[in-house]
What does this fold into?
Amino acid sequence: MSGILCVRFSSIGDVLLTTPLVRALKRRHPDAELFFVTKRAMAPLVADNPHITRVVALEPDEPITGLARRVRALDPTHGLDLHGSLRSTALRLLVRCRWSGYSKRKIARTTLIATKIDVYGTHLPVPERYFEAARALDVHPDGDPPEFFLAAAAQERAGRWLAERGLDAKPFAALAPGAAHATKRWPIAHWQALAERLRRAGYGLVAVGGPEDRDLARQLGPTVASAAGELTLQETGACLARAVVLVSGDTGVMHMATGVGTPVVALFGPTVEAFGFFPYTKRAVVLERDLACRPCSAMGTERCPLGHHRCLEEVLPDQVAAAVVRLVA
It folds into this structure.
């Protein structure tokens, strides 16, 4: 076996959730070269993974034919399509090797959203679904979390950033108030109340996220240091690695924290466990409301279809603070 391609173009959480499979492949086939194909923006998530021989990054605006030309030069024997998109399908047509993929359970997901009838059967986490693509390679999940390996430069930069804010010598909690879609966001008033409770409990506070989360992070108040949009993906990972806990919605930051070994309190609203994206670690608490209207979408929407957003409105700051205490104790 000369080389195995793992193809997952995006997004943050989805890429990191492939790493248990990457780990298993390297253990089972130590002499094989592992190539990871992803978008340039996602490359830092796997760039320092010691199990991966080379990351092949799709450049912005690069045609798939150009990417395929570079991938063909690697002469892979196996291709694992861990995305199942039009782009990955095109790559499968353009690069000759033994390809396989996995099931996204789209019919089961659509049925659950539309009718609230669960036809999934076993609720298999997405990291374990990815193993279906490697069924011919004799690998099995070990049950351990994703892995997000960090470069020394990123760790040093995050350390300096925290030290400049006096957070290098006290326990701090990381808060991730952002999400791509509004219905996945916990109400800002709840975040503010949680921040005050954690501050009174003696925690330092750091808000994390991307540039699009800067405004939300500022709204958490002056006692919360905002790293949103200030740190790179790897630097954010290094900041999370130093945190005693992360509080987050159903977002990629949640999987970044599990990848660096930080406990997570996860707040789930429009999405549910059956979709497969609960934090893949034993060091996590998921808070959710058992409502007849859940799930209402696969990835969240801009407004609650019923106009009340009870799924997250009714997850209260006191409950979250208590979960933090239980998890950190």
